[in-house]
Structures are given as structure tokens and as C-alpha cells.
Amino acid sequence: MSDDLKSRTFRGVFWSFFERFSVQGVQFVLGIVLARLLLPSDYGIIAMLAIFMSISQVFIDGGFSSALIQCSDRTARDYSTVFYINLGISLLCYAALYLGAPAIAAFYDQPLLVPVTRVYALNLVLNSLVAVHRVQLTIDLNFKVQSKISLGAAVLSGLAGIAAAWAGWGVWALVVQMLCSAAVNVLLSYYYVRWLPGWTFSGASFRKLFLFGSKLLAASLINSVYTNLYTLVIGKKFPPASLGVYTRADQFAQFTSTNIAGILSRVFFPVLSRFQDDDERLKRVYSKYIQLSAFLVFPLILGLCGVARPLILLLLTEKWSGSILLLQILCAGCLWTCITTINLNLLYVKGRSDLVLRLEVIKKSVALLILLATIPFGLIAICAGLSVYSFLAFYMNTYYTRKLLDYGFLRQLRELFPYLFLSLVVLAEALLLSRFVESHLLSLILSLCLCSATYIVLGYLLRVSALDELFQLVFKRSCYR
User: How far is the CA of 306 from the CAs of 200, 240, 294, 394, in angstroms?
Assistant: First the structure.
């Protein structure tokens, strides 16, 4: 990459990290307060709606956001067309959920879901109003503004949710939090971006973007159904409290891998799209992208696995202890989630949404078989099956990266091995500290300090390339000289 593009990429990564983790940090802290005020069953009620909200959001986006980013000749008419498509589909989805609320409540045998669904689903309409604004900021790599918007929404909505929970509103406190977040996000997006759609809708724009986006829509729909199928099955087979425990464990496990994957994808997708036709250059940057992701994600995920027990007991108290083992099992799967996402990004960059769709059909067929096989054995087996699938998904995604760039499973695994080895050392160290240090707070502090130092020192001694690449991005020179 040129120095200017490297500089812009680094700024994009920095502000994307700041935006995601400042927001997640605020949400995490405020979420801990909420979790202490609310019951696992309250979270379970909201989690029952996850599959319906997620599928609706997939239809609303329809792959058009990714199509706009990937498209090199986008116009103002394209933006306006996507805005009206998103808004129209969001209204249809809201109407469907409003009318279908009694059926959803009957399925779960939870009458409270009727009013909760009808109010909670308003988030779909609010989010559709700013989808194009987010695309514009992403294309410009302007994550500084996104950080301001997201942080403001997280703080105000979190405080609103805590106030509602303190007043004894129960599950409605979570509804208030989400609606407030969406509303503030809309207000701040229009304030900072200052973009309004024109009074135009282009059939030509729709057809151009739909050609690419329709396949992503189908792939995203399959992935969304599968991802939320777990909450559907657990919510139907187990009581709401069990679903709440699983959801909390999954949120902790996804916190690192999903966030870092999302951060890096938002930055590198538009960057890599700039030289999508230069395979050699694309391959070099893509290799650095994967190693940098592993360098950041692997120790955090396995470190989280090691401190799961003191973390849950200290922050959430004993009533959430059922999340501990589930969190440790799910961490094994989340280890590969980030790498799986990155491999899909290559297909997006190359404009091969058809391959993305084909992969999703194959992967989710395998995943469904694993889920059906583990359901009779309970929550622990379900989580173990999910972790097994995550590694298989990584393996299957690399089939097409090898075809397109000669960058397949074995080569990626060789490049990832040093980071996996170092992270396993971190895991062992964290588990020992959690086992022998009685104070949960002291155990967490020691794990954070000692494991971080161990990882960086060993990485320096082994001269891992991602450490040097990160050092050069920040300080403009190699750390090994």
C-alpha cells in the first residue's frame, strides 16, 4: 500500500477500534449494572425475538450496503434509491411483526411477547433511516464521526435503560434501552452527516446493486437464520432463564471476536476493494490482514476463556454462574469466527457474491446437522457443537481463497500457528491464576497484567510478523531493529 493509503487505513483502524470498543466498553459497564438489576429471564424474553429481528434486518439491508461499498461508480441516485428501498422494506417488516406478535407469543408460550414485540420492532424502522449514512462514512473511512454517534447513543440509551430497570420495569427496561439507542443514533447521524435523500428512485440503480446484493441477501439470510436458530431452539426447549444464561455467555464470547472482525472488516473491505484487480498486491495485504487479526483476537479470546469464572462471579454475581462453562466452550469456537469472516471478505472484494451464497448453503447444512445431533444432550453439548462448526466453517471458507488467490487452509494455518501457540500460553497462565488466586478481582488484575506482558514478550522473542507490522503502523519503524 502507498504511504497515504497506509496512513488512512491506520487512522480508520484506530477510530474504528475507538468507536467499537468505547461503545462496547460503555455498553459493557452499563450492561453489568442492568444485569444486576434484572433477571436472566428478562434477557431471555428479549433473546426470543432475536431471530425475527435479525431476519428482518437482513431483508431491510438486502445486501445493498455492501453493494454500495463494493461499487466503484456509485452515484447520488444510487444512495437515494437504497434509502427508499431500506425504508420501504423496514415498514413492511414492522407490519409483519406487529401482526405476527400473537403467533410469536403463542410459539414460546409467553403472552408478554405480544406488546414487547410490537414496541421493540420499531427499532427496524429507525435503523433503516441511517443505513446509507453509515455506508457513506464507511466508504470515506470516517470512523471518527461514527465513534461520536455510537458513543453518544450508547451512553444515553444505557442510562435510560438503567433508570427504567431501577424503577422496576423489568424486561421493558431493555426495550427502552434499544429504542433510545436507535433514536439517538438517527438524530446524531443526520446532525453529523448532513445527507438527505433526493426525490428520486432509479430502477437502473436498483438492478445494478441488486445483481450483487441479492446473493449477499440470500447468504446473509441463511447465516442469520442459523445464528439465531440457537436462541429459537433453546427458547422453545428450555425455560427463559436458561436462554438468558446462554445469551449472556454468547455475548461475552462474541465481544472480542465479533467486534474486532467487524472493526477490521469495515476498514479493510473498502481498502482492499481499491485494488481488487491486482491479485499479487491483494494477496500480500490480505495475508497481513489475517495475521494482524489473529495477533489481536487469539490472546483476547483464550484469555477470556481463562478468566471466565472470576469474571462472571465478580461482575454478574452467583446467579449467572451457569454462564461460566458455556462461555469457556463458546470461546473455542469464537477463536475462528474472525478468520472465517475475513475469508468471506475476500469473496466480497472480488465481487464473488455467488460463491458466498454457495458456501453459506453448504456450511449451514453441515451446521444444522450438528445442531440436531446435539440438542438431546443439553446446553453444553449444543455449545460444543457450535464450536466444532466454527472450525469447520473456517476450513470450508478457505477452499475458495485457495482457488482465487492460492491462499488456502494449510498456508493460513501455518501463518496463524505462532499466534495460536502464544495464545495457548496465555490461556494456561490465566487458568492457573483463576484456580489459585481466591480473590476474583485480584485474579483478573494479575491475569490482565501478566498475560499481556507474557504475550508481547514472547511475540517479540519469536519475532512474529504481526507485532512488527503493528509497530510500523504506529511508530513508522520496525520493532526488531
Answer: 54, 27, 18, 23
Q: Tell me the H-state helices in 110-239.
A: 113-120, 122-128, 131-139, 143-166, 171-193, 203-237
Question: Looking at residue 432, what is its pLDDT?
Answer: 92
DSSP-H helix ranges across 38-121: 40-47, 50-61, 64-70, 76-108, 113-120
CA distance 325 to 313: 12
Q: For residue 390, give the 3-state DSSP assignment.
A: helix
| DSSP three-state, residue 202 | coil
d(CA 179, CA 150): 14
C-alpha cell at 161: 435503560
> For the segment 419-458, what is each residue's pLDDT rounded down to a tens digit?
999 999 999 999 999 888 888 889 899 998 999 999 988 8
pLDDT digits (tens, 9 = 90+) for 432-441: 998 888 888 8
For the chain, how big is the Rg over CA atoms in Å?
Answer: 22
As given in the structure block, the three cell numbers for residue 61 are: 439491508
Taking the C-alpha atoms of residue 452 and residue 470, their distance in angstroms, rounded to an integer, is: 16
The span from the CA of 112 to the CA of 7, in Å, is: 51
pTM attached to this predicted model: 0.65
* Residues 46 and 246 sit within 8 Å (Cβ to Cβ): no
Chain-centroid distance, C-alpha 97: 24
**Three cell numbers written together for 162:** 438503567
**% of the chain surpassing 70 pLDDT:** 82
C-alpha cell at position 69: 461499498
3-state secondary structure of 350: coil
∠ Cα 423 425 427 (to 5°): 70
Q: At 36, give phi and psi (nearest 5°).
A: -75, -30
Write the Ramachandran bin of 149: left for phi over 0, alpha for psi from -120 to 50, otherwise beta: alpha
pLDDT tens across 315-332, in order?
887 878 888 899 999 988
In angstroms, the CA 266 to CA 20 distance is 11
pLDDT in tens, 235-266: 778 777 788 788 888 888 877 777 666 666 66
